Amino acid sequence: MKYLITGDWHITDKRPENRVDDYWVSLIKKLRFILSEANDYGVQAILQPGDFTDSPSLSYEAFSDLTDELKFIVNPIITIWGQHD
Which SS3 state, helix, strand or coil, does residue 53 take? Predict the structure, then answer.
């Protein structure tokens, strides 16, 4: 079996203090890259070791954008709860 293993994603809708780019656009691009690599390499699952988000709640807009990106994935994402989730 092939797995793609990532680190903690810490998805948040709040721009980190020292970021000067459009944080949300950068985050979505990175997410698309991960999903694309998983498809290109034919992995069976994406393993994400917790801290999927940076807090237990996201704004509705961020949640909606995130689900729009994830709803077409072929590979399951296997994750566990982290202290930030």
Answer: strand
Give the integer Cα–Cα distance in Å for 63 and 84.
Answer: 16
What is the spatial distance between Cα 62 and Cα 37, in angstroms, rounded to a whole number?
23
pLDDT tens per residue across span 64-79: 998 898 887 878 899 8
Q: What is the pLDDT of residues 9-63, one digit of tens each?
A: 989 888 888 989 999 999 999 999 999 999 999 999 999 988 888 888 888 999 8
| Residue appearing with tokens 């459009």 | 22
Token pair belonging to 22: 């459009």
What lies within 8 Å, CB to CB, of 84 at 6+ separation is 8, 10, 51, 53, 54, 55, 56
For residue 3, what are the β-bridge partners?
Answer: 45
Those residues whose C-beta lies under 8 Å from the C-beta of residue 13, and which sit 6 or more positions away, are: 24, 58, 59, 61, 62
